Amino acid sequence: MLPLDASTYLLVLTGAGISAESGVPTFRDAGGLWEGHAVEDVASPAGFARDPLMVWQFYSERRANMTAVAPNAAHHALAEVERRLGDRFLLVTQNVDGLHTAAGSERVIEMHGNLMRSRCSVCDRAPFEDRTAYRRGVAPMCGVCQRAGRDALLRPDIVWFGEAIVAGALPRIETFVDAAGAGLRFLAVGTSGLVYPAAGLVDVVRARGGRSWLVNADAPANARSFDTVTLGAAGKVLPEMFA
Ligand code: OAD
Questions:
Q1: Nearest of 2, 204, 221 to residue 92 by alpha carbon
Q2: Is 230 near ligand 1, meaning CB less than 6 Å away?
Q3: What structural domains and CATH numbers belong to the chain?
């Protein structure tokens, strides 16, 4: 049970596990996304430079799969807590599936980008919504660059290995933690605790004297850093978690 009162500032971190019950495959579980694909091939700038068609095929399949996907009870539980806490709530997600926003969450930082957006791999035009699942063998080009006489590929607006997380994410978290003071509470849900900086948030909270909760299907790499660990499915645990 995670008690909420008038002084509570709740920082939440979610990973692929929170969307598992919606039918979105996780990254590292059996049957997960990387199966059959080397991470460096589909989630790195070098992989994209080597074979953009294959990378676009991978993300196009993921876009196509999202049409049948909806938020589950865990996403809804977090949206409900946010309605109670307002600005004393901040949700940081490593997921690119957009399901928190679909559930009604508003104070969301998508630190690894969003599957349903594209951006140019060359020019600095703003990322834009793009739900297109491109046909096999088609790699889309940037229209802005084409009009300027350049050929430039579009790419998914996703943070790949070796790239910086979404600009402004860390300062926004820092501001929230500063405002929280002694009321800081941290909840991590459905994440393997392997990918930084997300995996280090629990240590930031501990250093500030905040209390921490973890809800995960199994004990992840950084489980010992949390004050309270609940092993179980997020869709079952979260709706009963907030007092
Ligand atoms: P992982 O696939 O590494 O971990 C998912 C975690 O969720 C595992 O620890 C599972 O045990 C747990 N899990 C599975 N089903 C669950 C359920 N129903 N309820 C609760 N927990 C469940 O995914 P992430 O930790 O999100 O980065 O991976 C972090 C990052 O690694 C991703 O954002 C991605 C990847 O590289 C980028 O793409 C930059």
A1: 204
A2: no
A3: 9-24+70-112+165-241 (3.40.50.1220), 28-65+117-158 (3.30.1600.10)
State the distance from the centre of ligand 1 to the C-alpha of 151, rounded, in angstroms: 36
37 belongs to the catalytic site? no
**210 in Cβ contact with 8 (< 8 Å):** no
**Host H or E run for residue 178:** helix 169-180
Span from the CA of 90 to the centroid of ligand 1 (angstroms): 19
Tokens 């991978």 belong to which residue?
Answer: 58
- Classify residue 126 by its DSSP letter: P
What pLDDT digit, counting tens, does each position of 1-38 carry? 899 999 999 999 999 999 999 999 888 776 666 767 88
pTM: 0.95
Whether ligand 1 lies within 6 angstroms of the CB of 154 is answered as no
Q: Is the CB of 94 under 6 A from ligand 1?
A: yes
3-state SS class at 162: coil
Q: Is 178 exposed, middle or buried (0-12, 13-18, 19+ CB in 10 A)?
A: exposed
* pLDDT tens digits, 108-140: 999 999 999 999 999 999 999 999 999 988 889
For residue 198, which atom of ligand 1 is closest to its CA?
Answer: 29
Q: 92 CB under 6 A from ligand 1?
A: no
